[in-house]
Amino acid sequence: MFRATPVICALILSGTTIAHSMDYAVIGAGAQSCGSWVKHQLMRETGLSWVQGFVTAMNMHEAVQGGSGNLSKGTDADSMELWVTNYCSANPLKDISDAAFQLYATLKNR
Questions:
Q1: Rounded CA gap, 87 and 80, in Å?
Q2: CB 84 within 8 A of CB 37
């Protein structure tokens, strides 16, 4: 489970890329490597669904916290796929969950 600390929130708001240093389990396609995202079309399809679910969960989290609840407004599946593909191409040893978290941080900072 993800818990945001004040330091993490400050880094997100500043636009800083942060590493996952929290102890939590990632299940499903998010646990796969960015290298597999780049190399395999099926992983991109499965992974994109996982990323969209992650962004949806973060939208829900934002709504509960009093935010807009729609960080992804104006962003479609193709845009998310391209963003994650670019991230994963540059960071093949990271996990898809890392890419999803960085996408969330980018959407939050728009």
A1: 11
A2: yes
Instruction: Give every CB contact of residue 60 below 8 A, 6+ residues apart in sequence.
Output: 69
Q: What is the DSSP letter of 33?
A: B
pLDDT, tens only, 77-100:
999 999 999 999 999 999 999 999
The span from the CA of 87 to the CA of 70, in Å, is: 22
Which burial class, exposed, middle or buried, applies to 33 when counting CB atoms under 10 A from its CB (0-12, 13-18, 19+)?
A: middle
- Please work out, in degrees rounded to the nearest 5, the angle formed at the alpha carbon of residue 72 by the alpha carbons of 70 and 77: 140
Q: Which residue has the tokens 């290298």?
A: 35
Q: Which two tokens stand for residue 2?
A: 């993800």
Q: Is 41 helix (H, G, I), strand (E, B) or coil?
A: helix
Confidence of residue 10 (pLDDT cuts 50, 70, 90): very low
d(CA 85, CA 48): 10
Token pair 């997100």 is found at 12
